[in-house]
Amino acid sequence: MATWRRDGRLSGPQRLCCAGLAGALSLSLTAPLELLTVLAQVGSRHCGRGLLGAGRGLCRTEGVRALWKGNLTACLRLCPYSALQLAASRRLVILFTDELGHISHWRAIIAGSLAGMVATVVTYPTDVIKTRLIVQNRLEPSYEGILHAFYKIYHQEGLLALYRGVTPAILGAVPFSVGSFFVYINLDKIWREPIVCFTPLQNFINGCVAAAVAQTLSFPFETVKRKMQAQSPCLPHCGTVDAHFTGMADCFRQTVKNRGVLGLWSGLTPSLLKIVPYFGVMFSTFEFCKRVCLYRNGYIESPLSYKLTPGVDQSLLPQELRELKRLRRENFEPRKSALEN
């Protein structure tokens, strides 16, 4: 069993800000690997040269900035996606929590997966735009930016084009959840100690392993999703997709026919390579931002450590602590005036 907990010393906006900054920085630093993953999934001509060859070829033809195509869209999508996922997750966790305030690991994973599905569907058009910006040639762009891409896709291909590939995106959440659940139920056997005794390093390794297993299992759905997002009669070479298809099932068939079964896992290598730096940067940035917020709220002495401020009740909420400090100041000032008189 696990207990659903969050640090009450941070306000809602502070938690969202910490998560947003951590996510944006980790996305930006791993953007080249994400771009190579998408190009390999779509079947771009650049990816026939291997990982390093694809990166060098792209830099040679479109410039170094091409490695960050679509990254701004991914960063802007992060805040609404995180807010929606957090709101949905809270409601689902409350629904799955027992009367003692505990929730089992599999229920927590199901709640997280369902919350992710909600956030994915609502913000899906931005993911389509990100893919289109990645597959286009930066020097001869079909889309001049995020808003232009949204406008052009909507007017040329219709509203449904902004949701092309949403079905495999939702279906891919099933093997993703199964993979995560399989890892987490075996953690105590792998480490040979209870989950509650895990160190931060062990939890970081656990997260990376769970992400790697889950991504590997759900990757075929991710590949089909990217191909469906990229394919468009309005783009040069139909969006550089290596197979032409009429729907999700046909996309699976054509991919296997043209590239074999392993073609469904094209781009898995850069996707796995980005896991450790992505989570490493995200966790370290989040923890630093959290310390800054705790310092500003008055719970710790310095943003460089977690040393608690003496005399401060750590169970108080931020607004309660501020109110307590205000009352102390108000009581102190009359006494000071009386002593001076």
TrEMBL record:
Solcar repeats lie at residues 14-95, 103-190, 198-292. The keyword Plastid does not apply. Transmembrane segments: none annotated. One of its GO terms (cellular component) is mitochondrial inner membrane. It is found in: Mitochondrion inner membrane. It is a multi-pass membrane protein. Pfam families: Mito_carr (PF00153). One of its GO terms (biological process) is transmembrane transport. Keywords: Membrane, Mitochondrion, Mitochondrion inner membrane, Repeat, Transmembrane, Transmembrane helix, Transport. The keyword Transmembrane applies. Belongs to the mitochondrial carrier (TC 2.A.29) family. This is Solute carrier family 25 member 43. It comes from Phasianus colchicus (Common pheasant). The gene is SLC25A43.
